[in-house]
Amino acid sequence: MKNKYSVILGNLGNTCDRFCKSYKDNPSTLEMLSQAVKIPHVEGIELVGTWDIGPDNVKEMKKRFADYGVQCVSIIPDVFGDKAYGKGTLTSSDPAVRQKTQDYLRQMSEVALEMNCGILNMWMAQDGYDYLLTTDYDQKREWLKEGTARLAKEFPTLKFALEYKPKEPRNFSFHARMSDTILAAKETECPNVGVTIDTGHGFVAGENVAEAIVLAKRAGDLLFHMHFNDNHGAWDDDMIVGSVHSTVYVDLIYWLKKTGYAGWLSMDQYPYRENAVDAIAESIEWVRRFEAIVDDHFDEIDRLVKLNDAVATSRFMRKALFG
C-alpha cells in the first residue's frame, strides 16, 4: 500500500518562539501553499483555522487546492492562540467561553466539510492546568467529553482526532498520553472520535510510540492521524525526522504497517532557522528511508520481534542503517 505524505502549512512560515518574534520573513498563506506543493511526495496539506482558513476564504482555498491537485488532509482549529482560551476552551469554568469554543469548532467542522476534508485535528492545547488544588479534574473532563461528543454527533461524517501532548502551553494537559486520550475518545461513545499521534509529543511524554500505536489498535482502530517530527525528549523541539531517533522510527513504522494504518503521514515541524522547504523535504526522505527498511525486511523484523534477542536486533539495525 502506497503511503500518503502531507505537511502542516504553517510549518513553512511560523518562525516565532518565546524569545524572537520571527527568525525569518514569514510568507503569506498563499505563498506557503505554493511552496508546500513543490515539496517532493507531498500530496496533502493540513490547515490551521484562523491562520490559514475560515469561512471568509474557504472557497478560494478550495479552488487553490483543486488547481494544485492536493488534498486538504485536516483542519486544525485554532483553540490555542486566542487569549479568551487562556484558562481552557471546552473545559473553561466560564460557560460563555465553552460556548464560544463550541461555536468555533462547529464553524471549523463546516469548513472541513466544504474543503472535502475528512479530519478535524483537535489539539486542545489550553485544556489543562498549571497549579495544584485549582482544578476540578472530574468536572473539566466531563465538559471536555460532552463538548467533543456534541460535535461528533452533529458531524457524523467527520473524524475528530484528539491530538495529545503532556504539557505546553499548560503544565498538565488533559489529553496527555495515548492511554488517557483513548479513554477520552471512548467516553464520548462516538465511533468518529479517535486519536492523533504526534511522534514528538510521544517522545516528550516518555512513550514508546510503537506501543502507543498498538494501544490505539487494540482500543478499536482509534489511530486516525499521524504527525512526524523529532526531538531530544525534553521538549517539543519539532526537529527534522531522524535527526535524533532511528530505531524508534523503524519500530513505529513497522507497527503502523503491522496494525494496518492507512491514514496520512504528515510532517509537523517548525524550522525556525532552517530553510523550511528543505527541512520538511528532508523529514519526508527520512520517513521514506525508514519505510524502505521496514518494507524490505518486514519478515526479518517480524522474526526479530518474536526472537526477543537485543543483540540480534542491534546487529540488524546497524546493517540496515549503515550497511
Characterize the structure shown.
- This protein is an alpha/beta fold.
- The protein has a single domain (4-296), classed as Divalent-metal-dependent TIM barrel enzymes (TIM Barrel, Alpha-Beta Barrel).
- Helix content is 43%, strand content 15%.
- It has helices at residues 29-36, 58-68, 95-114, 137-154, 178-187, 199-204, 209-218, 247-258, 276-296, 298-307, 310-322, and strands at residues 4-8, 42-48, 71-76, 119-122, 128-129, 159-163, 172-173, 193-198, 223-228, 264-267.
- Strands 1-2-3-4-6-8-9-10 form an 8-stranded parallel barrel, surrounded by 6 helices. A two-stranded antiparallel sheet has the order 5-7.
- Strand 9 (223-228), helix 8 (247-258) and strand 10 (264-267) form a beta-alpha-beta unit.
- Helix 7 (209-218) runs parallel beside helix 8 (247-258) and helix 8 (247-258) packs across helix 9 (276-296).
- The longest helix has 21 residues, at 276-296.
- The chain is globular.
- The mean pLDDT is 97.
